[in-house]
């Protein structure tokens, strides 16, 4: 056993002879230690303030008990290990102290085994501390990664908004001007061949104008900034369903807040992706989107379709890849916005995507 400093043992025992026997057993085991003995609650409380490493506690004390010791440890020194060292006790009593938090119990008739037991308990305690530190480090790294990812997403959304405005205000206006001039040319008397060419150019230009408008809308619908989440979702979903010839629509419950929440753009993108998936892959005949604004700021977004469904665990297993990139992206986007997302599906019945954004995390 490798200990950098003497182990501080707190022994709760009313028999000086038993305290001495425990001390001799530790010396015989070769342990470097300091042992403090108490037998009642008040001295035990005071001893806890001196930061012991481990507590050895007799089971049969006239003024104290291991169960009370464990209660006091939980109040002031949670995690401090306690081993019951006693004469024979019943199985029921042993189970009770172990369930209450004792790490082990040992018979006084076999004190030669107490040293190895203490080493094992201290080794487990160090491993627990290392595991907690590792978990905290992972959680801290995840929080930092989430903040970085959120900033990246925010930058992407601003870039999308900028491109959408440029498409609408610059390229869109230029294309509209070309259409107007082509109409003017078309009204002039032209040879049959030239007129046909102008008609073709006019059709192509009008198609290009519509493409620019559609691209601008999909990049950043103006309704999201001007009219709110419900209007943006309704406009987008109606466009998607109308183009695909699929029934459905948007249902809104609760009062939408006047102030936009940071999670709204994530909710909008999730709806956009979920509806796109339903139209592309599910063979659905009906898609319904529900937005539920709950008092206090909670937002619940549900996208359901009556398509063929799919094996959700199977598709998501094995990490992110081309086949599940969109689904994984929805999950990640929800988490970065302080929410969580669940996908449930049944074969030949349909799929439900549900994202919940909590106000305390938005």
Key phrases:
362 residues, 5-stranded parallel β-sheet, alpha/beta, rod-shaped, 5-stranded mixed β-sheet, 10 strands
Q: What's a concise summary of this model?
A:
With 362 residues, this protein is of the alpha/beta class. It is 56% helix and 17% strand. It has helices spanning 16-29, 41-48, 66-76, 91-100, 114-187, 192-219, 222-226, 229-244, 264-282, 312-316, 325-336, and strands at residues 7-12, 33-38, 54-57, 82-86, 104-107, 247-253, 286-293, 299-305, 339-346, 350-357.
Model description:
- With 362 residues, the protein is α/β, with parallel strands linked by helices.
- It is 56% helix and 17% strand.
- It contains eleven helices and ten strands.
- The chain has a five-stranded parallel beta sheet, with helices on both faces. A five-stranded mixed beta sheet has the order 6-7-8-10-9, with helices on one face.
- Strand 4 (82-86), helix 4 and strand 5 (104-107) form a beta-alpha-beta unit.
- Helix 2 packs parallel to helix 3, helix 8 (229-244) packs parallel to helix 9 (264-282) and helix 9 packs antiparallel against helix 11.
- The radius of gyration is 35 Å and the shape is rod-shaped.
- The two termini are 49 Å apart.
- The model has no long low-confidence stretch (mean pLDDT 88).
> Helix tally?
11
Please tell me the overall pLDDT. Answer: 88
Distance N to C terminus: 49 Å
Helix-strand topology string:
EHEHEHEHEHHHHEHEEHHEE
Q: Percentage of helical residues? A: 55-70%
**How many β-strand stretches?**
10
Share of residues in strands: 15-25%
Characterize the overall form.
rod-shaped
Taking pLDDT < 50 over at least 5 consecutive residues as the criterion, the unreliable ranges are none
- Radius of gyration (CA) equals 35 Å
């Amino acid at each position: 056993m490798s200990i950098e400093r003497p182990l501080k043992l707190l022994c709760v025992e009313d028999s000086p002879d038993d305290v001495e026997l425990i001390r001799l057993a530790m010396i015989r085991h070769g342990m470097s230690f300091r042992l403090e003995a108490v037998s009642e609650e008040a001295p035990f409380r005071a001893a806890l303030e001196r930061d012991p490493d481990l507590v050895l506690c007799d089971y049969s004390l006239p003024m104290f008990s291991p169960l009370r010791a464990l209660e006091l440890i939980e109040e002031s020194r949670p995690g401090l290990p306690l081993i019951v060292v006693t004469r024979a006790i019943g199985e029921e009593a042993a189970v009770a102290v172990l369930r209450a938090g004792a790490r082990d119990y040992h018979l006084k008739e076999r004190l030669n085994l107490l040293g190895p037991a203490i080493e094992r308990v201290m080794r487990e305690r160090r491993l627990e501390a290392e595991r907690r530190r590792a978990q905290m480090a992972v959680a801290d790294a995840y929080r930092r990664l989430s903040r970085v990812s959120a900033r990246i997403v925010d930058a992407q959304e601003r870039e999308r908004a900028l491109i959408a405005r440029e498409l609408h205000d610059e390229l869109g206006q230029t294309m509209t001007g070309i259409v107007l001039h082509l109409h003017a040319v078309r009204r002039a008397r032209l040879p049959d061949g030239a007129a046909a060419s102008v008609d073709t150019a006019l059709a192509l230009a009008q198609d290009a104008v519509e493409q620019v408008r559609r691209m601008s809308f999909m990049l950043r619908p103006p309704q999201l900034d001007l009219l709110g989440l419900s209007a943006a979702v309704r406009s987008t979903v109606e466009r998607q369903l109308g183009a695909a010839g699929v029934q459905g629509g948007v249902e809104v419950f609760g009062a939408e807040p006047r102030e936009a929440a940071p999670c709204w753009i994530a909710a909008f993108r999730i709806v956009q992706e979920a509806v796109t998936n339903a139209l592309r892959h599910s063979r659905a005949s009906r898609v319904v989107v529900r937005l539920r604004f709950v008092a206090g700021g909670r937002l619940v977004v549900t996208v359901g379709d009556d398509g063929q469904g799919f094996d959700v665990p199977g598709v998501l297993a094995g990490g992110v890849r081309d086949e599940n990139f969109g689904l994984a992206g929805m999950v990640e986007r929800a988490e970065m916005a302080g929410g969580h997302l669940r996908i449930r599906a049944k074969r030949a019945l349909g799929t439900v995507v549900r994202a919940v954004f909590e106000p305390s995390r938005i």
